[in-house]
Amino acid sequence: MTHSHPIRVYYEDTDLAGIVYYANYLKFIERGRSEWVRSLGLDQAAMKAQGAGVFAVRRVVADYLAPAHFDDLLDITTAYMRHSGARLVLRQSVLRGDKMLFLAEVTLVCLGDTGRPQPLPDALIEKIGENTPHKPKV
């Protein structure tokens, strides 16, 4: 289950040399995650309103592999890796054509109204289950 989201690099995303400023990759993958959730048919505002929680980044392990430049067309990919309890782990990448520029493993936690972790929403678990290949039982 991999989702793809295209974005264009704008002048505001770059430094004086026309290279994407490193922190902006985190913004790009945030957009990719939001679009991934939307592609699953889930509305994050409705989830919050219904008490199903909100997602917060707990951990990011990132590799900057090559620079993106002003006016590049990039593809942000988001792929489900695993989940347990309140945690969801995704693999995200930024590509320009076939060239991988950035790769990250992102751990999210679902937080309730009190700011404390709570189990991932049932609707999300159902969607992940629909889109995840099942291993045969032995």
TrEMBL record:
Alphabetic keyword roster: Hydrolase
Keyword set includes Ribonucleoprotein: no
Gene3D superfamilies from the UniProt entry: Hotdog Thioesterase (3.10.129.10)
Membrane-spanning parts: none
Presence of keyword Glycoprotein: no
Database matches in CDD domains: 4HBT
GO terms for MF: fatty acyl-CoA hydrolase activity
InterPro entries: 4-hydroxybenzoyl-CoA_TE (IPR050563), HotDog_dom_sf (IPR029069), Tol-Pal_acyl-CoA_thioesterase (IPR014166), YbgC/YbaW (IPR006684)
Protein family membership: Belongs to the 4-hydroxybenzoyl-CoA thioesterase family.
Protein's recorded name: Acyl-CoA thioester hydrolase
